[in-house]
Design brief:
The complex is a heterotrimer of chains A (317), B (288) and C (249). Chain A has 317 residues and is mostly helical. Chain A is built from 15 helices and 2 strands. Classes of the chains: A mainly alpha (317), B mainly alpha (288), C alpha/beta (249). Chains in contact: A-B, A-C.
């Protein structure tokens, strides 16, 4: 926090100004719940990008941890205790624990092979949610639970009935989470992760146990992904096995790429565009899936750097 | 009881042969082009539906013969127009590209042929059981197994005895050297993709006869195919074949004893292999 | 006991014998060059020292410690740093960041989720010092990937120096460079060798570099040791002349 540099801080100021004022203007273009969904999914995309964009490791199975967070939250509220806070904590810890256990099996792998194994592991949870009918509700999803008001002692947040209150609650969780990730990325540990992304061999020959660093980055990434999953489940008061499905993983990856993997806020921009687009398309045509697929193809072929990558390039030219 | 186990094993072998057919195609493409083809299941569905649409004109056998070839043609086109553009870039992009294609394939299939399941007619004489005591062993199942074995055998012959096959295998080991030696890598990758898609199309037609037609027919086969590759070892076709049959039999047996674990058992096997032998059963060490 | 002792090492790849019974003793503070014609097994020999390949036979010790079973990143911990024939740096980061990362690693911070206040000033000072010593100060804020070949090599060497190694291994440091760049890199190597009294082992193609820099030279041919001595010994050695220098002149 040496000198306040308006050029460096500009993007941060714009992002926070837009997010903080969102309930004031969102109704002109959409609705508050969609804004909440964007913030929750953006947290997931940014969590993935911690690994994808800043450690250079290609995970295509992050939906598993998104789903664990979602089911963890929903099942806690339904079966254990009707508390939003407890749901979020259990959901997040469930994702973290799974990531810690699966990590050692996959950190030795690289590239497409890593991607393929992460997808396959993700599917395990899909089948558990799908098969374990009695507890998870199976294919129909987990119902009969909803987010609860949060008692802070001096006041109660009625997130269950006031859309705007819930939005700010999600935004607060988002702010803390991305704050932690930004802090880590600017630390020596974070720089070591970036070094791995830049040149794994060089990093190994600087004496770093690369696999251990990737494991830690993986756990951090999956933990915040689980947190995002629990927020998204609370938004819907519902979760079904599709949260685990490999297609959901791909959606998070495209959010990162569409917004710009090398920019901190890129995944947020990507999430906003993707969710808004999906919302509009699905209300216009039954074949919205084709258009989503087309978005993938167009982004890959014509905008591989993403929106922020292009903007940044324009700015330096 | 022993007949129940026999039933499970035979069922497992048949399902496993499907997995292997898919997985070998995926593995060919992955080894030579560093692309995970998520659209593989989509191609499989296209093969199945094409066969369905042409059966009234060319019959079952005509469909079986022509549909996979047409699917392979579509594969060659898709590779040339789209996928070949992202070679040499971060594998991330090819994953996303084929991922998007998977969405499009499924949706277009649904748009053309409808979301409802469709029946697929197999000649009546193939559908009757071979004997009373082995009631589950229909002619069609035996025929499928035999055909898959013939096709896989032909593929192994292609890979080890023909110039194209030798070039493909050399390319998976060292693409740079192969290109220096004057092989046109673009054509090689294109043909290799076509071979992989042909296998997917064939699996589609055969699966349609067994399971009927749905736009998502490829979806249920693609994940086990990944697992077959991981277990068998990437780059080893024999390993992939073995992996497919193994998980087929394992999940077939699980269906009998612990039905709810029929999928889970594959993933457990995968986890064990990754723990003990990360490169897969027949994979080479140090490749990944 | 010498600083680095390589005792009768061999490496077989199947039936191919790439390195066959090579011994070499390097004293502390020495600059040793390993030369040899193509196919002499230099890269393999080098990778046996860094641990990228495992020994088929023989023994390597660093200050008496046996290196058997010590993997490459652990050898860094023992004080071994290396550069690669094809420069390995962080292309999308600035030169300053390229140097800063190994400085922080050397300070034991690679797992640290925050920068301890007390470390801030010393780390910055050390980064500046290394940039200066490598002649990189003027390009400190440029992306490493955009630099000339020679500047990238200088960056890579200074990244290794940042680890405060006891032994620096240089794999063809001037490979693929023009005369000016070769000269600049050779000067940098001489300077770090003299200034810090660092022990250096390098393999090199460029004979001018070798005969100017090295205290002693080891000549390999077809995986076997052919000769060893001062640059003068080697120039006068008839066997070497015949096997190698004669062929090239």
């Amino acid at each position: 926090m040496e000198n306040f540099d308006i050029r460096k801080q500009g993007p941060n100021l714009i992002v926070w100004a837009l997010l903080l004022t969102l309930p004031l203007w969102i109704n002109y273009v959409s609705y508050t719940q969609l804004g909440t969904q964007i913030v929750a999914m953006a947290l997931g995309a940014m969590a993935l990008n911690f690994l994808l964009g800043y450690t250079g490791v290609l995970s295509f199975g992050h939906a598993a941890y998104f789903g664990l967070g979602a089911y963890g939250a929903g099942m806690t509220i339904r079966y254990l205790m009707p508390s939003t806070g407890a749901g979020i904590i259990v959901g997040t810890l469930a994702g973290m624990l799974a990531a810690m256990l699966i990590g050692p099996l996959i950190v030795r792998l690289r590239g497409v092979y890593f991607a393929m194994v992460t997808i396959a592991f993700g599917q395990v949870f899909y089948f558990i949610a799908f098969r374990w009918n009695g507890v998870t509700g199976g294919d129909d999803g987990l119902t009969n639970w909803k987010r609860m008001p949060i008692d802070l002692g001096f006041t109660t947040l009625h997130i269950e009935s006031q859309a705007t209150t819930f939005y700010y609650f999600v935004l607060a969780v988002f702010a803390i989470s991305v704050g932690i990730m930004a802090f880590l990325l600017r630390s020596p540990f974070g720089r070591t992760l970036i070094a791995i992304r830049e040149n794994e061999r060089r990093t190994r020959f600087l004496g770093i146990n690369v696999n251990r660093h990737i494991w830690i980055s993986w756990v951090i990434s999956c933990t915040f992904m689980a947190l995002a999953g629990s927020l998204n489940a609370l938004l819907n008061n519902f979760v079904d096995p599709r949260a685990f499905f490999w297609r959901q993983s791909g959606v998070f990856v495209i959010m990162c790429v569409m917004g710009g993997m090398r920019s901190f806020w890129g995944p947020l921009v990507g999430a906003a565009i993707f969710i808004w687009l999906q919302d509009e398309l699905s209300s216009m045509t039954a074949n919205w899936q084709s258009f989503v697929g087309l978005v993938f193809v167009v982004v890959v072929l014509f905008f591989p750097r993403g929106v922020l990558g292009i903007l940044r390039r324009k700015a330096t030219e | 009881m022993s007949q129940l186990i026999l039933l499970a094993v035979v069922n497992g072998l048949i399902v496993g042969a499907f997995y292997a057919l898919m997985a070998i195609g995926l593995s060919l493409i992955m080894s030579l082009s560093d692309v995970i083809n998520f659209a593989h299941g989509g191609f499989l569905a296209v093969g199945a539906y094409l066969a369905y649409s042409m059966t009234p004109y060319v019959g079952f056998w005509g469909g079986l013969l022509i549909a996979p070839v047409l699917t392979a043609g579509l594969g060659l086109l898709v590779e040339k127009v789209l996928i070949s553009r992202v070679y040499g870039r971060d594998p991330l992009y090819s994953l996303l590209l084929t991922f998007g294609l998977a969405f499009i394939f499924e949706d277009v299939t649904r748009y053309i042929w409808g979301a409802q399941g469709l029946p697929y007619q197999v000649p009546g004489w193939l559908m009757s059981p071979l004997s009373l005591s082995l009631f589950f062993l229909t002619g069609y199942r035996v025929f499928m197994m035999a055909l898959i074995m013939v096709v896989v055998g032909a593929l192994f012959w292609l890979m080890t005895r023909t110039r194209l096959g030798l070039r493909i295998r050399a390319g998976t080991l060292d693409l740079e050297t192969v290109s220096i030696l004057g092989v046109n890598v673009r054509v090689l990758r294109n043909l290799n993709f076509g071979i992989g898609i042909y296998l997917a199309g064939l699996a589609g037609v055969l699966a349609a006869g067994q399971l009927g037609l749905q736009p998502t027919i490829g979806d249920s086969l693609i994940m086990p195919s990944f697992i077959a590759i991981i277990i068998g070892g990437l780059g080893s076709l024999t390993g992939t074949l073995l992996g497919g049959l193994m998980i087929g039999v394992a999940s077939g047996l699980a269906t009998v004893f612990v039905p709810s674990a029929s999928e889970a058992v594959m993933y457990v096997m995968m986890a064990v292999v990754l723990l003990v032998r990360p490169q897969g059963l027949l994979g080479e060490e140090g490749r990944f | 006991m010498s600083f680095l002792e390589i005792d009768n090492v061999s490496k077989h790849f199947g039936s191919l014998v790439a390195v066959d019974g090579v011994s070499m003793k390097v004293e502390k503070g020495e600059l040793r060059a390993v030369i040899g014609p193509n196919g002499a097994g230099k890269p393999t020999f080098f990778n046996l020292i860094t641990g990228m390949l495992s020994l088929t036979k023989g023994r390597i010790t660093l200050e008496g410690q046996d290196l058997a079973g010590v993997d490459p990143s652990q050898r860094v911990g023992l004080g071994m740093a290396r550069t690669f024939q094809i420069t390995e740096i962080f292309p999308d980061l600035t030169v300053r960041e390229n140097i800063r990362i190994p400085v922080e690693i050397q300070a034991g911070l690679s797992m640290s989720p925050f920068m301890p206040k007390a470390m801030r000033a010393p780390i910055s000072a050390r980064v500046d010092e290394l940039l200066e010593a490598g002649g990189l100060t003027r390009i400190a804020n440029r992306l490493a990937g955009e630099l000339s070949h020679g500047d990238q090599r200088a960056t890579e060497i200074m990244m290794s120096i940042a680890l405060k190694p006891r032994l620096l291994l240089l794999d063809e440091p001037t490979a693929g460079m023009g005369d000016d760049e070769t000269y600049a890199v050779a000067r940098l190597i001489r300077r770090i060798h003299k200034d810090q009294g660092l022990t250096i082992v390098l393999i090199e193609h460029d004979m001018r570099v070798v005969f100017n820099l090295a205290d002693r030279i080891t000549v390999l041919a077809e995986g076997r040791p052919l000769a060893e001595g001062t640059p003068q010994d080697i120039t006068e050695n008839a066997t070497v002349q015949a096997a190698y220098l004669g062929g090239e002149a």
